[in-house]
Amino acid sequence: MVLLLKPIRPLQRRCRTLAKSNPRDSIKLTSVDDLFSTEESRVDSQREKVLDIPLSEISDFPNHPFKVKADEAMLEMADSIKQYGVLVPGLVRPKADGGYEMVAGHRRKKASELAGRETMPCIVRNLDDDEATIIMVDSNLQRENILPSEKAFAYKMKLEAMNRQGQRTDLTFSQLGKKLNSYEELADKSGESRNQIYRYIRLTELIPSILEMVDDKRIAFNPAVEISYLTENEQQDLYKTMQSEDCTPSLSQAQRMKRLSQDGRLNIDVIFSILTEEKPNQKEKFHIQRERIDRFFPKNFTEKQKEDLIVQLLESWYKKRQREQER
Fold first, then answer.
1. Higher pLDDT, 277 or 136
2. Whose CA, among 23, 66, 215, 302, lies 20 to 30 Å from 154?
3. CA distance 197 to 181
4. Paired strand residues for 92
5. How far apart (Å, rounded) are the C-alpha atoms in residues 188 and 156?
6. Residue 5: pLDDT band by 50, 70, 90 thresholds?
7. Cβ distance 66 to 97 under 8 Å?
8. CA-based Rg of the chain, rounded to a whole angstrom?
9. Phi, psi dihedrals of residue 322, rounded to the nearest 5°
10. DSSP E strand stretches across 125-257
């Protein structure tokens, strides 16, 4: 019996080994779904889909440079959405902590809220920070009316994103073979010169109160660029002087203040003397004490809105007077 058991044990081990290494175990079977799906359906599953996403789950893009105002155009968009819905989907990206971040479609989102909608159609796309920034800027720069401050911060954000992506080293002119830096690439796509883009970005160095004056067209673009080279304290002194004296610097005055600032010789007294000097071809100004008229305007009215209303009322008075004289 002992002699018969010895050859049986190696045979048993060999059988177990063969059972474990059965070739059929390594065969990967195609699933039923794969067997009956077409190439078209597999491609379709990879396409981006338009989803109705609750507005409460969509947050704004961080530091979004474009203002979303409930102005007349916004109210018209809200009325259109009430009737027809959002015709062009927004673009969002998923957030790591849940929900979505708006990339393109902030105005449509606001109009949807005003229209009483709870959801908005959106394309969901996985984007990194720089990709999302570039798309956000490009989609908003297509608008007709853009404030200087909006364009300034938008260009700055896109330029920084392009630099992080390394686009300044791998882009060339196809015909000249010349390397493009980020400013040139941005200029090529925006239709503005490299220098003009740089000048817009300079506006981001202005304090908010002066930048608002630029948006309201109370300070011209060129003087504003020169003022941007002043320190924050110098800009604060300039703003106070502009308010108290009801004046703004010309281009030559702004350039002088810039040079004096660079030499460390600019202070509030110098600013006052420059702003109050008589300018070439300066006409006598008509002044009304602020206290006499401020009580007639809403508190949130800007200086530009006050001026426009005064002119409008004067035009109405003038036309009425003309009609009375013609009788």
1. 136
2. 302
3. 13
4. 102, 124
5. 15
6. very low
7. no
8. 33
9. -65, -40
10. none
